[in-house]
Amino acid sequence: MKILVIAEHDNLSLKPATLSTVTAALAIGQPVDVLVAGAACASVANAAAAVAGVSRVLVADHPAHAAQLAESIAALVAEIGTQYTHILAAATTTGKNLLPRVAALLDVAQISEIVAVKSADTFVRPIYAGNALATVQSDDPVKVITVRTTAFAEAASAGNAAAVEPLNVVKEQALSAFVGQQLSTSERPELTAASVVISGGRGMQSGENFVLIEKVADKLGAAIGASRAAVDAGFVPNDMQVGQTGKIVAPELYIAVGISGAIQHLAGMKDSKVIVAINKDAEAPIFQVADYGLVDDLFKVLPELAEKL
Amino acid sequence: MKILVAVKRVVDANVKVRVKADNSGVDLTNAKMAINPFCEIAVEEAIRLKEKGQADEVIVVSIGDKACHEQIRTALALGADRGIHVEAQDGLQPLAVAKLLHAIVQRESIDLVLVGKQSIDTDNNQVAQMLAALGGMPQGTFACGVEVQDGKLKVVREIDGGEQTILLSLPAVVSTDLRLNEPRYASLPNIMKAKKKPIDSLTPADLGVSVAARLRTVSVEPPPERSAGIKVASVDELITRLKTEAKVI
Asked: What is the ipTM of this complex?
């Protein structure tokens, strides 16, 4: 067994998603190598070497890898991939963009968003918006897998001193070019890693009204999410959407405000430990998954919550 | 530019599926079926590119048993020019689907492939990326903006932290995200016209592709059930219970 974890990073820091992926990798077996492909990414490599359970860190540091475009990184991973029995990445937009391309280059299947490891060749993954869990088995020589990070605890990020080796493989390509990006900046915890999340839905009626959610989030140190309806209506940016095709979250506490609870939204949050729903419609489907439901006007409840917390 | 759009017949998004009692799969008996929402967005984008004069032909393809003719006709009614039905068993896995599409891309000299980012039944999110790899093409996944720019394709993508813009050479593969566009409704005259548009039938053998499954489904289970919750009467009660009972704040 030899497992490769593709690190999730931004060239500056190692993302917590990698820690959960390492846990999934260790559940399959050992040794576990971590690949850091990027540009001027030495600090990421050092952080990866400190993660518990990691045997070796391979660093492919080159300007051509700066934007981590799939066309170059997949070629790189495919080249070294045949030495491994398993290749894992977090099911982030980076991992989801990259790994199927790797799988096709290796002519193997890809297994998306596993939530459990049953054995070295058998994994569990959600289908139909999480309304069913499929246990699938693969006989491919290399198993290429993306990992739903909410299903695996983060490996300890310190205490190890794995070897860091430069990987002198560079895959330059001219098919795609990075033009730019616009990232949301927030002081709040990252949505997929926060232990408390409060989300607003269509019931918020406007983007300005989200300030009521912000006041509660401030008190709880929470991240802020939204339903598709709120995003489509332009209340909040796209990257706040929680749901089947948006972010998957599983915090200790999830508060759904003015959210009806469509199947697609539930898919993104029903593994939360405690769910609270605030909605003036007592029949809203969200109450079927809520541990605590408050049937009341959110415009009355939110200020009261912010004040009393 | 010649565009290929792939559409999948899936269970309607509003259906809450149930697992079969023998855990062999999901029970789709009498379930309402529809075109995968992301595929519909792909069709719409292709039609818009044609309407802007940037594409001369939009070919729609679907893979599965004869029932998917319904989804091909829907795409033709929305404005696609002709259809291809790859007659195969339902439930082909993404690698097989990508290989079939790759064979069609080569056969038809396609410049741009538009597919949905994921199908809402299997939730794999793999076909676009795999097809791009097989064809040595660039990929613009989770697209929320597509624009032809001097013979290249500018794609704005939804990524975890916000949006990313990339420039792709053609031919390329794009997978659509939710907010790329809002699909139109087919008008009755267009539905009638669609009945006369041609749909060619091909088999995997015609395309020289082996579609054997790589992953074996061992079992399908319902997700863990949450125990029923309670209604609280006030904010005070909610806060108290969250502190003392649930101990999450």
From this structure: 0.96
